[in-house]
Amino acid sequence: MIASMTGFARREVAGSYGTLTCELRSVNHRYLEPGFRLPEELRPLESEFRQALSKHLKRGKIDCTVHLRGAQAAERELRIDATALARVAAAVTEVARAVPGSTVDAVEILRWPGVVETASQDTEVLLGAGRALFQQTIDDLSAMRAREGKRLGELIEQRCGGLGALVTQVRARLPEIQARVRTRLHERVAELLATIDRERVEQEVVLQLQRLDVAEELDRLTGHIEETRRVMGGGEAAGRRLDFLMQELNREANTLASKSQDLDTTRITVDMKVLIEQMREQVQNIE
């Protein structure tokens, strides 16, 4: 099953650490090239993330973004350092004695550094959540790329069918074209008012027909179409091989056009090149 290189996936999970959001965006690229934007808390996982991507994806430029939004203050447990509070309270009492009539807001005391303890974050819980979230997002991205790849495969198969039909049309015209070329050459010879070696003329006719023969080009086109279908049905990354096959199909279509001595055949070769170009554009998106 072929896969597309383009896709997008987004996942979000919440916990005691806050809210984690992971986004993966994939576009065409010759090789697998991941780029990461991670919060400092998850930076130790970058190497693991790279390995996870390489197990599922073979090609594509992957933008990986993970955001961490801390838990809201209302959701966090408020813990007061009694020792620090006692020190601040003693200092406030001393100031009150030195400056009669002065008042201190209790909220201001809570804002004093060290009075309210900052809850330490459970690093392992956060890292575990990051690993699970990233893997789930990869699975979503892979599924989306597979769906898009299936659609591309159907389009390419349609064009393979169209190209095969055009090859059949040209092959069916070969006897008529060869007969027309032979008749044209004999007519030209007959216009010459001279004694001509008939055996020599026949040799020239055979040589001319050989130069214009396109049976090999048609056979190679058929072979490339069959190979394209085989590659698409395989389980490996197919993009590079399909790209090569598109080049070969285009080469044979160009050769066929250059040898054409028939207007209908020339028109058919134009239709062939249109289909091949459409396939080439679709192949650029395949992993």
Q: SSE layout and pairings?
A:
Layout (H helix, E strand, L loop, with lengths): L6 E9 L2 E10 L4 E6 L8 H11 L3 E10 L9 E2 L1 H17 L7 H5 L5 E2 L5 H69 L6 H15 L2 H19 L5 H21 L3 H21 L4
Parallel strand pairs: 3-4
Antiparallel strand pairs: 1-2, 2-4, 5-6
Helix pairs in contact: 1-4, 4-5, 4-6, 4-8, 6-7, 7-8
Question: What would you say this structure looks like, in words?
Answer:
It is a single chain. The chain has 287 residues and is of the alpha+beta class. The chain folds into 3 domains: 7-72 and 123-147, Ribosomal Protein S5, domain 2 (2-Layer Sandwich), CATH 3.30.230; 78-117, no CATH class; 149-283, Butyryl-CoA Dehydrogenase, subunit A, domain 3 (Up-down Bundle), CATH 1.20.140. It is 62% helix and 14% strand. It is built from 8 helices and 6 strands; from the N terminus they run βββαββααβααααα. The chain has helices at 46-56, 82-98, 106-110, 123-191, 198-212, 215-233, 239-259, 263-283; strands spanning 7-15, 18-27, 32-37, 60-69, 79-80, 116-117. The chain has a 4-stranded mixed beta sheet with strand order 1-2-4-3, covered by helices on one side. Strands 5-6 form a two-stranded antiparallel ribbon. Helix 6 packs antiparallel against helix 7 and helix 7 (239-259) packs antiparallel against helix 8 (263-283). The mean pLDDT is 84.
